Automatic annotation (TrEMBL):
Name of the featured protein: Non-structural maintenance of chromosomes element 1 homolog
MF terms (GO), sorted A to Z: ubiquitin protein ligase activity; zinc ion binding
Coiled-coil regions, chain positions: none
Name of the gene: Nsmce1
Chief localization: nucleus
Keywords: Chromosome, DNA damage, DNA recombination, DNA repair, Metal-binding, Nucleus, Telomere, Transferase, Ubl conjugation pathway, Zinc, Zinc-finger
UniProt-listed InterPro entries: Nse1, Nse1_RING_C4HC3-type, WH-like_DNA-bd_sf, Znf_RING, Znf_RING/FYVE/PHD
Subunit structure: Component of the Smc5-Smc6 complex.
Organism: Drymodes brunneopygia
Top-level taxonomy: Eukaryota, Metazoa, Chordata, Craniata, Vertebrata
Family of this protein: Belongs to the NSE1 family.
EC number from the UniProt entry: 2.3.2.27
Residues of the RING-type domain: 198-239
Catalyzed reaction equations: S-ubiquitinyl-[E2 ubiquitin-conjugating enzyme]-L-cysteine + [acceptor protein]-L-lysine = [E2 ubiquitin-conjugating enzyme]-L-cysteine + N(6)-ubiquitinyl-[acceptor protein]-L-lysine
Length: 247
């Protein structure tokens, strides 16, 4: 390789350490962190050079099969950064942190989420799977605890839908932005028939709206942005009328 990768400085190392310990960092936080690291370690700082700063780190992470990746939150369309292990194709990234039975529950939850219409799985459906696990059956109480840990560790996100009729809180789970950034390749290759990329930003879309005519999907923030400029909502792919409610 004739082009030498730019030198890693203490600022780069500090930035990487924080990113790794956070698991995932929101874009504005990453920009603040970039400035903080450069100023602390007296390294030249330019506010618009975060991507260059990260690609320097990535060139040094390459031999370790790791990479800082940028992804978009499906909720609000904001950028996030996560450190991804490229060597691990399976859900093995998680294998060191969880037991086999917990991983099985996670895989089954992921199935439910990806195969669903809207990118969510209800806690009821997930807990019903708990006593059908191959590894060993899991009690509902245990399963609830495990789900809580997956949310704390930023593999799943939870939303509560309060039903007016019953005073029951029914949790709905989806994949956390961290999970989508880290497992995009895994999901695209293991769910080839159902996993779709957003027609606008080309990254994996879990929570999405789908065109009834041609079947393309778009993230909700991308739908919002795309149709803002249009007088009437038509599919960017087949030009048919977009029948979903624009968020």
């Amino acid at each position: 390789n004739t082009v030498m990768a730019a030198q890693m400085t203490n600022a780069h190392r500090r930035f990487l350490q924080v990113l790794m310990s956070n698991g995932i960092t929101e874009g504005s936080e990453a920009r603040k962190l970039h400035q903080h690291c450069c100023e602390t370690d007296k390294v030249y700082y330019a506010h618009d050079k975060l991507d260059d700063f990260i690609s320097t780190i990535n060139s040094h992470l390459q031999p370790l099969f790791m990479q800082i990746r940028k992804g978009i939150s499906e909720d609000d369309g904001r950028a996030h950064y996560a450190v991804v292990n490229l060597a691990e194709t399976e859900v093995t990234k998680m294998a060191s942190d969880y037991t086999e039975i917990e991983l099985e529950l996670f895989r089954k939850t992921m199935d439910l989420i990806i195969l669903s219409e809207n990118g969510f799985a209800s806690s009821t459906d997930i807990l019903n799977l708990a006593d059908q696990l191959k590894t060993k059956k899991m009690k509902k109480k245990e399963a609830e605890q495990v789900l809580k840990v997956f949310v704390e560790d930023k593999w799943l996100s939870e939303k509560f839908l309060i039903s007016m009729l019953v005073s029951l809180k029914n949790g709905e789970y989806t994949l956390h932005t961290r999970c989508i950034i880290e497992m995009e390749q895994y999901i695209l290759s293991n769910y080839q028939d159902v996993a779709r990329k957003c027609n606008i930003c080309r990254s994996l879309a879990i929570q999405s709206q789908v065109c009834e005519s041609c079947g393309i999907g778009m993230h909700l923030p991308c739908v919002r942005k795309y149709f803002r400029a249009q007088t009437e909502p038509r599919c960017p792919n087949c030009n048919e009328f977009w029948s979903c409610d624009i968020p």
